[in-house]
Each structure stands twice: as structure tokens, then as C-alpha cells.
């Protein structure tokens, strides 16, 4: 009952805010760190992660920041982060020539424990998603023709790789983009879906993978991010928005966004698409959504059918508060932003 009352209160607050027009306020910039990981447990607590072994945390809605260089990982690129509260978070380091790592803190970032290490040749982790404080999943680029997947059932303290023969099969030239940590999402309380890019771009779920109409065919093209609407309703997960494009053509609007209302059976191009390549999309209540990329931020209030360019500040990732109404952004040059309404 208390949770239902809280959800109802947040819905009323969010609906009131969204009657206004959004803009983006810059909270931080200039530290020369590329931030691609972002997690917002509540309106006040924000965690970010990026290259040069960097993690940032704010506990006062972005007014001040604690910046951390994780000892022993000074050259690591933490492409994704999942935070549970002000003290606990899990970070994911991509691998290429180096091993892939997952680390966890329970003391606000003062110390980190390696909870997963994989030295497989060619290992490259792309994104991480948690259903709740216990269950999580990580997706990685194909190894020997199959997408790598590992799972946690204890809050990221330990991880179990999905057996090779049960991993999804990748097509030639198909991979995932480690652009914003949002190419894999919880579809509902039990299932996750992920999107791919490159020479082929598809949506993967428990069923057969579905081809996406987004631009594809080159290593730089395809889907970068997927957002799920109403995922916690009994019949949630039907509304989805997929964004991407060609990251070598950041102003191109060609086939960079599609939305569906039936779980991916049919896809629709926006009447007015986002204004360029977009690396991340985030669904809010009442069909509102934000998408960000190298040349700015777009807002939709009709589930992805029409997009308005609200900022020309570039960001890699946008995430909504898990227990509130705030929406934050993170990107290059240590840039962090927040949606404000006027």
C-alpha cells in the first residue's frame, strides 16, 4: 500500500512538471573525462563513470561532486554503472586488449572490490542492467559468433556466465555499442531485451530476434539504445523506442529513431525525428521521452512520434531517477546536465 501511494504521488508530481517545457541545465563540465555511465537511484543521488578510471558521485542533486580514480584501474574505461543508493554501486570496465572487469563498492566509492574478471581474448563488455537490487545482467560483444552474457543474482557480488550454447547467435558484422549502457533493458520483471548495430541491427528477446528498420550496414551504424515504456505494468514492455544512427555523421537524421506500440511487431518512424545521431533514449511516464547524442538533446511528449530539439549541448547518456522525477545527462569533457522545467 505504501509503495502504491508513493508511486501515485510521483506520478502526480511528474505529470505536473511535464505540463511545462523542458530545458537542460549544466551542473558540471571541464574535467576532460568522457562519461558514459550514469545511474540515478533517487533525485539527489547521482553516480557517473567514465575513462581514466573515473567515478563521480553526488548526494545533493549535482550541486557538489566527489570524484574518484579507482586504484589499480587508472587507465580503465568504466562504460557503465549501476547504483543502488548513496553507498553501493557496480561498475563495468570494457575489455579489448585488457581483461574485462566488474567492480563493486559498498562505502560510497572509497574502496572497490573486483567481483568479476574475464581474460577471454576479444572480450568487450557493452552494457549492464539490473531489474532490482539483486538481479542483474551484462551484455558483451560476440565471442566466436555468439553474444556474451553474464548474470548476477546477489546484487553484483558474484556473476555466472551464460553457457556458450545458450547465448544468442550474432550475424557477421553485428555487435553492440558501448555508448551509454542502455542497449540492454529490463522488458518486465523477468525478461531483458537488447539491441545491436553494425552491419545488421536487431532486437533480441526470448523470442526470435527482430530486424530493426534503423540505418545499418556499416560498423558505425545501427541501434545504440532502447527504452521501454510501462515495463512494470502487468502487460508492460509493449511500448519501445530505439535510437542510434551513424556516429560518424552526428547531425544526420536518416533512420535514427523508431518506436513501437506492440512489442516490436511493427515499427514506426517519427513524424519529426531527433536532430541527429542519438546514443541514448530514456522513457518517462505519460509517453514523455528524452534522447541525447553528440549534438544535443531532444524531447518527445508523444511516445517518440515527434521530437523537439531542446539543447545543443552534447551528451552520451541520459537516465531518469528510479525513485523520483529527475532526469540527468552525462557526456564528454565531464559534462553533466539536468532537466529543468519552465
Unreliable runs, pLDDT <50, ≥5 residues? 1-10
What about the largest sheet?
4 strands, antiparallel
Helix content estimate: under 10%
Whole-number total of structural domains: 1
Annotation field: number of helices: 1
* H/E topology pattern: HEEEEEEEEEEEEEEEEEEEEEEEEEEEEE
Question: What structural class results from the helix and strand content?
Answer: mainly beta
CATH architecture: 7 Propeller
Q: Percent of residues in beta strands? A: 35-45%
Backbone shape:
globular
Q: For this structure, what is the CATH class?
A: Mainly Beta
What is the CATH third-level topology name?
Answer: Methylamine Dehydrogenase, Chain H
Strands of the widest sheet, in order across it, are: 1-29-28-27
Spell out the blueprint of helices and strands.
Blueprint (H helix, E strand, L loop, with lengths): L1 H16 L4 E7 L6 E5 L6 E5 L3 E5 L7 E4 L8 E6 L5 E5 L6 E6 L7 E6 L6 E6 L5 E8 L2 E7 L7 E2 L12 E2 L8 E3 L5 E4 L1 E2 L3 E3 L5 E2 L9 E9 L9 E8 L10 E4 L19 E4 L5 E5 L2 E5 L7 E4 L5 E4 L6 E4 L5 E6 L1
Antiparallel strand pairs: 1-29, 2-3, 3-4, 4-5, 6-7, 7-8, 8-9, 10-11, 11-12, 12-13, 14-17, 15-16, 16-18, 18-19, 20-21, 21-22, 23-24, 24-25, 25-26, 27-28, 28-29
Amino acid at each position: 500500500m505504501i509503495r502504491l501511494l508513493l508511486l501515485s504521488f510521483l506520478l502526480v508530481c511528474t505529470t505536473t512538471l511535464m505540463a511545462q517545457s523542458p530545458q537542460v541545465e549544466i551542473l558540471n563540465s571541464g574535467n576532460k573525462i568522457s562519461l558514459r555511465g550514469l545511474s540515478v537511484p533517487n533525485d539527489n543521488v547521482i553516480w557517473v563513470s567514465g575513462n581514466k578510471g573515473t567515478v563521480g558521485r553526488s548526494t545533493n542533486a549535482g550541486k557538489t561532486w566527489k570524484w574518484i580514480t579507482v586504484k589499480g584501474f587508472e587507465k580503465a574505461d568504466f562504460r557503465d554503472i549501476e547504483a543502488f543508493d548513496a553507498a553501493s554501486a557496480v561498475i563495468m570496465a570494457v575489455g579489448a586488449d585488457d581483461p574485462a572487469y566488474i567492480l563493486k563498492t559498498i562505502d560510497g566509492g572509497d574502496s572497490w572490490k573486483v567481483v568479476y574478471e574475464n581474460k577471454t581474448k576479444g572480450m568487450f563488455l557493452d552494457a549492464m542492467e539490473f531489474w532490482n537490487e539483486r538481479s542483474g545482467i551484462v551484455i558483451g560483444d560476440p565471442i566466436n559468433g555468439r553474444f556474451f552474457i553474464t548474470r548476477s543474482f546477489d546484487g553484483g557480488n558474484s556473476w555466472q556466465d551464460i553457457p556458450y550454447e545458450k547465448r544468442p547467435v550474432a550475424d557477421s558484422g553485428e555487435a553492440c555499442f558501448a555508448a551509454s549502457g542502455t542497449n540492454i533493458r529490463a522488458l518486465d520483471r523477468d525478461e531483458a531485451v537488447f539491441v545491436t548495430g553494425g552491419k545488421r541491427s536487431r532486437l533480441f528477446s526470448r523470442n526470435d530476434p527482430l530486424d530493426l528498420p534503423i540505418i545499418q550496414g556499416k560498423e558505425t551504424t545501427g541501434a545504440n539504445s532502447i527504452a521501454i515504456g510501462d515495463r512494470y505494468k502487468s502487460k508492460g514492455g509493449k511500448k519501445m523506442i530505439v535510437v542510434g544512427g551513424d556516429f560518424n555523421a552526428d547531425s544526420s537524421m536518416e533512420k535514427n529513431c523508431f518506436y513501437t506500440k506492440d512489442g516490436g511487431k511493427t515499427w514506426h518512424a517519427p513524424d519529426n525525428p531527433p536532430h541527429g545521431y542519438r546514443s541514448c533514449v530514456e522513457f518517462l511516464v505519460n509517453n514523455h521521452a528524452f534522447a541525447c547524442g553528440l549534438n544535443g538533446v531532444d524531447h518527445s511528449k508523444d511516445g517518440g512520434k515527434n521530437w523537439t530539439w531542446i539543447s545543443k549541448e552534447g551528451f552520451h547518456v541520459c537516465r531518469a531517477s528510479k525513485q523520483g522525477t529527475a532526469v540527468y545527462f552525462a557526456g564528454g569533457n565531464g559534462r553533466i546536465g539536468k532537466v529543468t522545467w519552465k
